[in-house]
């Protein structure tokens, strides 16, 4: 029988909803139960289910308890895995909970990780602090091969990088890793599966701060890892033991948000391209970092590894920190706040906020300067956003 693969946009609407017709509902159900009664199989069935969950099973005959399984969360996980093209996905209470779970699950494979800078500031801080028991070697994306050790369990990259938007060639990372047994973790938060599906390029684990584009409305905090069945089991074991579960309401909001994800990302991307070009010509702007302008490392990966340049823009204002601080006070449409990927546009200062916990020398070496500002472009009219930026820069 001929198989048919639905387009990405169709999957965004329908993935994870396969049981709704059987349930006799159209909208996504929201199950807020904290505990589940014994079923027809009684105590023996519940005990067997508990043992299955403890071994990392995705589902069992009896959910038993919400820390072990929730159907609303499971539907979102199924949908995200379909969009990323992976076997499974495992959702967590935040992006950092997801990152921590990966590290805890990988600890059995070795005590060393290789980390490509720059990446999200709190991820950098966690890895540099040694809190998880790992020794971390920080390097550039062309130094990975030399940084590998026999006990390396993970190679961690973020592409596009936060906040410089440099791109990492995942095929080249895999080439450098060769036959090494370490797993490759890719933080793909900025790209979303609309623009990049790292599993197609050799990633074992694809991490998202789902708070950002996947949620898309600034009203949920969550993280998710799309991965293989084997890694999925390991991550669920960690989630069960540590209690880092995603609340069902968050899963409901995330699943609902996936239906509009392609529309939101592509609209914001088109606006970002226009604004980046205008900023590059502005007399008060020193430089613009945007993959669509070719002003970031490995920009040629757009159209190869990435389907588009994305909706994030970073730029350096003339006048350094003082000018950047004033800019934050003068925008009207751009909200001065951390986070990204929402329907409204945000502006923030990486060196003073998201990456302030990163060692100053490391910030400077990776281009996170006192005058760098990061924009998350939303769904407002491009002309209005430009008027806001131009007015703030000129005053």
Describe this structure in words.
The structure is a single chain. By secondary structure, this protein is an alpha/beta fold. It folds into 2 domains: 8-258, 3-Layer(aba) Sandwich (Aspartate Aminotransferase, domain 2); 261-394, Aspartate Aminotransferase, domain 1 (Alpha-Beta Complex), CATH 3.90.1150.10. It contains 15 helices and 12 strands. The chain has helices spanning 8-14, 20-23, 42-54, 71-84, 95-106, 121-129, 144-147, 170-177, 192-195, 229-242, 248-258, 261-280, 320-330, 360-365, 382-394, and strands at residues 88-92, 112-116, 135-139, 152-158, 183-187, 205-208, 223-227, 285-289, 312-317, 335-336, 346-348, 372-376. It has a 7-stranded mixed β-sheet, sandwiched between helices. The protein has a 5-stranded mixed β-sheet with strand order 8-9-12-11-10. The longest helix is centred in the last third of the chain and has 20 residues, at 261-280. The chain is globular and about 70 Å long. The mean pLDDT is 96.
């Amino acid at each position: 029988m001929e198989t048919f693969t639905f387009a990405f946009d169709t999957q965004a609407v329908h993935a994870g909803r396969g049981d709704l017709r059987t349930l006799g509902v159209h909208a996504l159900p929201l199950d807020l139960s904290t505990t589940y009664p014994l079923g027809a199989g009684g105590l023996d069935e519940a005990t067997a289910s508990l043992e299955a969950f403890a071994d990392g099973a995705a589902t069992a005959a009896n959910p038993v308890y919400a820390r072990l399984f929730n159907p609303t969360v499971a539907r979102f996980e199924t949908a995200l895995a379909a969009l990323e093209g992976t076997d499974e996905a495992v959702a967590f209470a935040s992006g950092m909970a997801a990152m921590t779970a990966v590290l805890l699950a990988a600890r059995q494979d070795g005590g060393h990780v290789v980390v490509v800078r720059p990446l999200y500031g709190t991820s950098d801080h966690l890895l540099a602090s040694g809190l998880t028991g790992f020794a971390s070697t920080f390097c550039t994306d062309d130094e990975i091969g030399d940084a590998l050790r026999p006990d390396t369990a993970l190679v961690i990259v973020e592409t596009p990088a936060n906040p410089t938007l440099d791109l990492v060639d995942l095929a080249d990372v895999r080439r450098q890793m060769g036959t090494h047994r370490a797993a490759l973790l890719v933080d793909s938060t900025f790209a979303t599966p609309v623009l990049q599906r790292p599993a197609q390029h050799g990633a074992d684990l694809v991490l998202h701060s789902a708070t950002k584009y996947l949620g898309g409305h600034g009203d949920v905090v969550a993280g998710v890892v799309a991965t293989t069945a084997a890694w999925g089991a390991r991550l669920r074991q960690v989630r069960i033991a540590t209690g880092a579960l995603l609340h069902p309401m968050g899963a409901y909001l995330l699943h609902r948000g996936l239906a509009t994800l392609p529309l939101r990302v592509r609209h914001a991307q088109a606006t970002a391209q226009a604004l980046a070009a205008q900023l590059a010509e502005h007399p008060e702007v020193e430089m613009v970092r945007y993959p669509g302008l070719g002003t970031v490392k490995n920009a040629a990966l757009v159209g190869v590894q990435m389907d588009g340049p994305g909706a994030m823009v970073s730029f350096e204002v003339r006048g350094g920190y003082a000018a950047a601080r004033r800019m934050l006070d003068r925008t009207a449409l751009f909200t001065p706040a951390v986070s990204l990927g929402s329907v409204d546009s945000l502006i923030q200062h990486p060196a003073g906020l998201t990456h302030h916990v990163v060692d100053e020398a490391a910030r400077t070496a990776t281009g996170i300067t006192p005058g760098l500002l990061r924009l998350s472009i939303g769904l407002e009219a491009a002309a209005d956003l430009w008027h806001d930026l131009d007015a703030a820069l000129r005053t």
